[in-house]
Design a protein that fits this description.
- By secondary structure, this protein is mostly helical.
- The protein has two domains: 12-200, no CATH class; 237-386, no CATH class.
- The protein is built from 14 helices and no strands.
- The chain has helices spanning 12-39, 49-59, 62-78, 85-104, 112-136, 143-168, 171-205, 215-233, 239-255, 258-261, 265-292, 301-326, 335-356, 358-383.
- Helix 2 (49-59) runs parallel beside helix 7 (171-205).
- The protein is globular, with a radius of gyration of 20 Å.
- The relative contact order is 0.10.
- It comes from Chitinilyticum piscinae.
- The chain crosses the membrane at residues 15-33, 53-74, 86-105, 111-135, 147-167, 173-195, 239-254, 266-286, 298-319, 331-353, 365-384.
Length: 397
C-alpha cells in the first residue's frame, strides 16, 4: 500500500492538482498581504507588484493544473496509455519548483531569473511529453489534442518573452508574455477543454440532451484568440474580433442549455463558469467601443472577468469534478464546494464592478481578496488532502 507521501506521485492529476493548489493558495495569500501592506502605506521593495502579479497569476499555478488534467484525460482522448511516473513527475516538480521561486521573487528579486528558467525548462519537457503522446496515438480525432499542443507552444513563447524581460527589464516584453499567457495559452486551452468536455458531461446527466460541439466552433474560437493576440501586438482596437467572439460564446452557452444545467450542481458549476467567457468578451467589446468614442474604457474589468470569472471559476469546477471522480467519491457537489464556487463568482463580480465604479474600487479590491482567500482556503482544506489519501472505493488510481 502506498504511503501518503508517495500517493501524490501515483497519478498525474494528484501531483499536478496538489502542486497547483498549493501555489494557488500561496499566491493569493501573498497578494492579499501585499494589498494590506499597501493599505497601511507600506510599499515593499523588489519586483514591481504589477509585474510580479501578472507573471505569477498566469504562469504560476494554471499550468500545473493543466498538466494534471491533460496527462489524465488526454491519453483517453488519444487512446494511449498515461505517461509513466518517471516522465510526468519530474516535469511537474520542476515546474512547481519554478513557481515556488516565482512566489519568493517578490521579496527576493534575484530568484526571478532561476524561476523563469525552471518554468521554461519544465514547460518545454511538458510539451515534448504531450507531443509524443499525440505522435503515438492511433485515434482518428486529434483536433483537441493538437490545439492544446499549439496553445502549449504559445505558452512556451510567453515564458521566453518573460525570461527576456527578466534579463533586460523591457516592460514591453513583459506585456508580450502576459498577452501570450492570456490569449495564446490559457483561453485556447480552457475553450478547447470546454468544447470537448461540457457537452459530454451534459449528455451524461441531462436527458434528453443532444451534444453540440461542431469542429468549426472550436476552430473559430481559437482563431479569434490568435487574432486578438495579433491585434494586441499591433496595438490596434480588437472590437472587430471581440464582438462576434462574445456573441458566439454567449450563443454557445445558450445552446449548451445553461438554464437546464442548474438541475445538477456539479454540472452548472461548469456551465456558469463558461458563461463568464462570453460576458468577458462582451466587456472587452464595450470597453473598446468606448475607446473609439473617445471615452474612458472599462479599465481592467474585462480582463478580470476573463481571468477571475472564467478561468478561476472553471478551474474550481473542473478540479472539483475530476477530484471527486478519481478519488472514488460520488459526483455530487457538497455544500462547501458549492459555497466556495459561488464565492469565487462573487470575487470576479466585485473586481469587475470595482473597475467600472471607481468609488467602489478601493474597498472592492480588499473585499474581493478576502472572499477569494476564504473560498480557496475552505476548498483546499477539504479537497487538497484527497491527493494524498487513498481512493475511498478501494480501486487503484
Amino acid at each position: 500500500m502506498l504511503q501518503p507521501f508517495a500517493r501524490p506521485f501515483s497519478a498525474p492529476h494528484r501531483l499536478g492538482f496538489l502542486c497547483g493548489g498549493a501555489v494557488l493558495l500561496t499566491g493569493f495569500l501573498l497578494w492579499g498581504i501585499e494589498l494590506l501592506l499597501r493599505e497601511g502605506g507600506v510599499l515593499l521593495p523588489g519586483i514591481p507588484p504589477l509585474f510580479w502579479h501578472g507573471y505569477v497569476m498566469l504562469y504560476g499555478f494554471f499550468p500545473l493544473f493543466m498538466l494534471g488534467f491533460i496527462y489524465t484525460a488526454g491519453p483517453r482522448w488519444l487512446n494511449v496509455t498515461v505517461p509513466p511516473r518517471r516522465h510526468y513527475a519530474p516535469v511537474v516538480l520542476l515546474y512547481a519548483t519554478g513557481s515556488v521561486l516565482a512566489l519568493l521573487a517578490r521579496a527576493l528579486p534575484w530568484l526571478l531569473l532561476p524561476a523563469l528558467l525552471l518554468h521554461l525548462a519544465g514547460w518545454t519537457l511538458a510539451c515534448l511529453i504531450w507531443f509524443r503522446l499525440i505522435a503515438r496515438s492511433p485515434a482518428a480525432d486529434k483536433l483537441h489534442a493538437r490545439l492544446v499542443a499549439l496553445a502549449f507552444q504559445l505558452g512556451l513563447a510567453g515564458l521566453a518573452a518573460l525570461l527576456l524581460w527578466a534579463l533586460n527589464g523591457d516592460a514591453e516584453l513583459w506585456l508580450h508574455g502576459v498577452q501570450l499567457g492570456v490569449w495564446g495559452l490559457l483561453l485556447p486551452v480552457f475553450l478547447t477543454i470546454c468544447h470537448r468536455m461540457l457537452p459530454f458531461f451534459s449528455g451524461n446527466v441531462l436527458q434528453p440532451y443532444l451534444p453540440w460541439r461542431p469542429d468549426w466552433l472550436l476552430y473559430t474560437w481559437v482563431g479569434c484568440c490568435l487574432l486578438d493576440l495579433f491585434l494586441e501586438w499591433l496595438q490596434l482596437n480588437t472590437l472587430i474580433i471581440d464582438l462576434p467572439f462574445a456573441a458566439l460564446l454567449l450563443y454557445t452557452s445558450w445552446r449548451w442549455q445553461l438554464r437546464r444545467a442548474f438541475a445538477v450542481k456539479l454540472l452548472v458549476m461548469l456551465h456558469a463558469a463558461f458563461a463568464w467567457a462570453g460576458l468577458a468578451l462582451l466587456l472587452f467589446s464595450i470597453s473598446e467601443l468606448l475607446g473609439l468614442a473617445g471615452r474612458a474604457g472599462l479599465g481592467l474589468a474585462p480582463l478580470h472577468a476573463l481571468t477571475l470569472g472564467f478561468f478561476c471559476t472553471m478551474l474550481l469546477g473542473f478540479v472539483t469534478r475530476v477530484t471527486l471522480g478519481h478519488s472514488g467519491r460520488p459526483l455530487i457537489a457538497g455544500g462547501l464546494a458549492w459555497t466556495c464556487y459561488w464565492l469565487m463568482h462573487g470575487v470576479a463580480l466585485t473586481r469587475v464592478v470595482g473597475e467600472i465604479v471607481p468609488v467602489f474600487g478601493h474597498y472592492g479590491y480588499l473585499l474581493a481578496m478576502g472572499m477569494a482567500l476564504v473560498a480557496l482556503a475552505l476548498w483546499g482544506r477539504v479537497y487538497l488532502p484527497m491527493y494524498w489519501q487513498a481512493r475511498i472505493d478501494g480501486q487503484a488510481d
